[in-house]
Amino acid sequence: MSEYDTVGADVEHEEEIPEDHPRYQDLLTRHRIEKGVEKGITHLQGMHAEGRGSAFDYLLGEETIPSADAAERTAAAHLLLADRPVLSINGNVAALVPSEMVALADATGAKLEVNLFNRTRERIEAIADYLRDHGAEDVKGIEADARIPNLDHQRAKVDEDGIYTADVVLVPLEDGDRAEALEAMDKTEIVIDLNPLSRSPQVADVPIVDNIIRAVPNMTAHARELADADAAELQAIVDGFDREQALANAEERIRDGF
Ligand code: PTJ
User: Fold this and answer.
1) pTM for the model
2) CB-neighbour burial class of residue 122 (10 A; exposed 0-12, middle 13-18, buried 19+)
3) Ligand 1 center to 96 CA (angstroms)
4) Which of 109, 141, 202, 236 has the CB geometry, 3.0–4.6 Å to 113, for a possible disulfide?
5) Rounded to an integer, what distance in angstroms lies between the CA atom of residue 129 and that of residue 173?
6) pLDDT tens for residues 187-215?
């Protein structure tokens, strides 16, 4: 029996997962999603989404590949250049990276908005409370006084002074219909999704094919490093990014392993 055989499904606190376990990141994400479901912030379907993501992450080598790092730097530049940037939070995002999303919002001046695929008042409020527990001050998405055009009622609900009027929006782990509908509103759309073939990264201006637990802290690090950059420097980063190449590089890594 190896020392790791003791890491079972009944880990109560994430500190109990040994950091040197060969599948540490996977165990940590699974644990956070499970706790998110227990707390009422993550939908049960979030576990299925996590399983799909985990399979792609395994094939990517569970690391941030160079094209994903470039996408993360470009995303940071877009958020810093934006007039009204918004970071969208669903039940998986809240469970996996709550304080990291708050840190990214602080580093870029973006607003945080809870926006759910399976929307209920209880989950919206539980997620907003959870983000406040992790340092968020203002959390949007509760009013839901505007609608994304061409989407069914529940999934279309957003805040007028949040996603509806945002010029740049980060939508991690997003459903394809909504990613397309946001793109049709002419927003600059940044998507984090481990599956490069999924519709959301396919329609994004900046597709980030990386695990959200690595992508968000890396975006924050880039944003902090670029804090004093002028608009021309940020625009040069944006102009130098090739979305098609980023998607192709990720697919190549997944299919061929290099
Ligand atoms: O909280 P809600 O109600 O808004 O629901 C959220 C989920 C994620 C359940 C909902 O949006 C959904 O069903 O999403 P999909 O259609 O399963 O898409 C999720 C995408 O995220 C898939 O393409 C996964 O590969 C990807 N994904 C899953 N986990 C991660 C990930 N991408 C990056 N990092 C992850 N940890």
Assistant:
1) 0.94
2) exposed
3) 11
4) 141
5) 21
6) 999 999 999 999 999 999 999 999 999 99
